[in-house]
Amino acid sequence: MTTGEFSANNTSAKQINVEASRLLGNASVTSYETATQAGGVSAFEIYNRKVITITNADLASQIQYDNEEYFGRSEAQKHILQGIVGKSILTQDGATWKSLKGSCNNSLSRNNIEKYHQGTQIGLDRALKIQETQEEDHSLILKRYDFESIFVQTTTKVFLNADLTAAESAKLHNAYVELAELSSNYIKYPVLMLIPGWVPHPTNIRMRLKSNTIDRVLEPLIKKAISKDTKTVSLLRDMDEEVIREKRCPLKGKEHFSLLKSLYIAGIKTSAVTLEWIMMYLSEYPEYWFQLSTECRELYGTDYPDVEDQADPECLGNIINETMRLSPTAPLLTRKVIKDCTVAGVKMKKMDIIFISVYGIHRSPEYWENPEDFIPNRFSKPHNPKAYLPFQLGPHTCPGQHLARRMIATVLIRLAQFYDLEPIQGKSFEYEGTVVSVPKHMQNFRFVRRK
């Protein structure tokens, strides 16, 4: 393969016809369907731009591992995320991205995250206690909003070593929910992406107001977390000290808010949705909840596992992995061509678009046996690493993946130790959303406390 050429096993893109309205209506589903129809790679034109959709894992891997010489973030993705979190790690490319991600790598490493294991537990117990007191029989009825509330509490404890009051938690959470809903307008009405953030358009104004609400809650907590006058141990302080120690530019002013908001959006929302998907599958296949509960009680009894002895049940990791395979929270990766190149035989120019269907790769029979079935034990055996990308691959791999997995695992262990999950049969596993996929039909999950 020569410089500027990206191909896999001599695979050529198949030219097809696609209506613009179909792609704009649901880019995730359209990318999956067109690439699958074309045998792995499709090509077409929309508004004089070439578009390639991919479900070929080898080609997708090459594009993700490009070191931002030929491909960068799409303008649409950056516009949506910048409206939610401001200029931050989620919206940057090139040297700025590498610097910001580099300043997080050690702090968000698996070893460093383990330092905050107890903080995760405290935040979780606080959140579950609030939920449990709402039911007379001390059972839990959890839905999407409640999963998000759990991660608001746990993430705040880990990042800032702070306990939110009920009012602070609700205000922060509601603001994030409304920001996410407002951002969906950019998907429904793509013309909004042409309007700069400073223009007084109703959507932009409302997003700024909600962002300011978040800042007012977080500002005193952030100042305390990184103050030189306090010895508070927190993940945000680790990051702040790391950029200074590594002689990178220290985070200043709004950058602290933007970084934290980035990790909130990428962490709280996606972790909550992943947990919701996990409960969807476990309530449909209760035998796996029974297996998880049995193993957790045998290993830990009623105690939290010690961080030094954290040998999670194998079935726990398998359940999380299989859920993220079938229902990845980020079902579509978008890349903008920033330098002329050739992809699967198609000459691409600057500003052309590439869609990588994570959903399609995760459900391809070429890489997975019985790909439509929920079989957690498949992850007990080796699999093609290029065909599993819930956190992306290459330079843009999610820096918060270890934190997300740790918090999700901690929640599942605690629930499995004390509660039975009531089965819900015959539910729909349809999803909606392009930036983050959520179950189309929301469920209430009932957890009955064991006697």
Keywords:
single chain, 451 residues, 14 strands, 3-stranded mixed beta sheet, 6-stranded mixed beta sheet, Cytochrome p450, alpha+beta
CATH class: Mainly Alpha
Named CATH topology? Cytochrome p450
CATH architect. name: Orthogonal Bundle
Averaged pLDDT, please? Answer: 82
Strand order of the largest sheet: 2-3-4-10-7-5
DSSP strand content = 5-15%
- Could you give me the name of the CATH homologous superfamily? Cytochrome P450
How would you portray this structure in words?
The chain is of the alpha+beta class. The protein has a single domain (5-449), classed as Cytochrome P450 (Cytochrome p450, Orthogonal Bundle). Helices cover 50% and strands 11% of the residues. It is built from 16 helices and 14 strands. The chain has helices spanning 20-25, 27-37, 57-65, 75-85, 94-105, 110-113, 117-132, 144-160, 166-188, 202-226, 235-245, 254-284, 286-300, 314-326, 358-362, 401-418, and strands at residues 5-6, 14-15, 41-46, 49-54, 71-73, 140-142, 332-337, 341-343, 346-348, 353-357, 419-421, 431-432, 438-439, 445-449. The strands form four sheets. The protein has a six-stranded mixed β-sheet, sandwiched between helices. The radius of gyration is 22 Å and the shape is globular. The N and C termini lie far apart (63 Å). The mean pLDDT is 82.
Summarize the structure in short.
By secondary structure, the chain is α+β, with helices and mostly antiparallel strands. It has helices at residues 20-25, 27-37, 57-65, 75-85, 94-105, 110-113, 117-132, 144-160, 166-188, 202-226, 235-245, 254-284, 286-300, 314-326, 358-362, 401-418; strands at residues 5-6, 14-15, 41-46, 49-54, 71-73, 140-142, 332-337, 341-343, 346-348, 353-357, 419-421, 431-432, 438-439, 445-449.
